[in-house]
């Protein structure tokens, strides 16, 4: 294993084969789009250490973030779980919602705008860094060719 933080071994179990099987299964599922879901982004938001050198992960993270960035501002059905005075509580909640809807929609729309701007900025920075990296790689290759051509 490559510098594992945690190592588990059991007599009679080939851990390397097990890990390889899990990785192969995950790769197949990822290729099939099984992890292409906004919920995966939620799970990965705290996994910032994985962003340090893996471009493929960053692309996946940005795609997932783009899917989950906007707050759903659609109305939901107001329900009541109490057995007694159900109608009264539903009407009360609907009345409160009618009074607060304007402010809530305004807040949500502003949050959606902010989220969209931040994701766009993050994507722009990522694209710029990828272009800069490609440029630097080309320059290094050109310099290496020049050095190899010397006697």
List the defining traits of the structure above.
68% helix, 151 residues, mainly alpha, flat
Task: Give your account of this protein's structure.
This protein has 151 residues and is mostly helical. It has one domain (15-149). The chain is built from 4 helices and no strands. It has helices at residues 15-31, 38-44, 55-68, 86-149. The radius of gyration is 25 Å and the shape is flat. 2% of the residues are buried. The model has no long low-confidence stretch (mean pLDDT 80).
Fraction of helical residues = 55-70%
Helix and strand composition category: mainly alpha
Alpha carbon gap, first and last residue: 42 Å
Number of domains as seen in the coordinates: 1
Number of strands: 0
SSE arrangement, N to C:
HHHH
Q: What percent strand?
A: under 5%
The rough form would be described as flat
Low-confidence stretches: none
Tell me, rounded to a whole number, the average pLDDT. Answer: 80
Report the sheet with the most strands, covering strand number, pairing sense and barrel closure: none
What's the alpha carbon Rg, rounded to whole Å? 25 Å
Q: How large is the count of helical segments?
A: 4
